[in-house]
Design brief:
Helix content: 55-70%
Strand content: under 5%
Structural class: mainly alpha
Distance between the termini: 26 Å
Length: 162
């Protein structure tokens, strides 16, 4: 994503929301997300970020962090996403709220390079008629991004360059 025009405004908005989530500033975070989720989509020439562009920015940021930290998978390999509780036990994905399952599903699609599936999921999420549902989804996605940014992961493997 670029940093000019609407893309720059989207990154700025996404970064501001991430900071609010990381700081656990629930009052300001909920206000910002509520405004974003209830505002009509920007019209032609309007560079204000939309819910759709901000959600996509957050999702892509999660994927980029994972790839930057772990490196890309090789041919015939894949990422396996596992959620663990604080005690180290595996969390049953069906026990997660719908928004948590959605985040894992869309991350899996983009990490597996199933971009058509990832885009389909993004389109369905942004077209959802319930602003409360969209707000919950964006909030959970921001929490996941904050979480992966804070993980203590190994440095990516060295990649030979030509």
């Amino acid at each position: 994503m670029g940093t000019s025009g609407a893309d720059g405004a989207t990154a700025t908005m996404g970064g501001r929301l991430l900071r609010l989530a990381a700081d656990r500033d629930i009052d300001h975070l909920s206000r910002e997300i509520s405004l974003l989720c209830t505002r009509p989509s920007p019209g032609a020439g309007d560079t204000s970020p939309s819910y759709a562009t901000v959600l996509e920015w957050v999702v892509r940021s999660i994927v980029e962090v994972v790839l930057a930290r772990l490196g890309a998978v090789g041919p015939g390999e894949m990422f396996i996403l596992e959620v663990r509780g604080q005690d180290g036990s595996t969390v049953d994905l069906d026990a997660l709220p719908a928004s948590g399952r959605w985040v894992l599903s869309i991350m899996s699609a983009f990490l597996a390079e199933y971009t058509a599936e990832g885009r389909r999921q993004l389109a369905a999420a942004t077209a959802h008629p319930d602003p409360y549902w969209r707000a919950e989804l964006l909030t959970d996605t921001l929490i996941w991004l904050d979480y992966v940014l804070g993980l203590d992961l190994p440095d990516p493997p060295d990649v030979p360059t030509r």
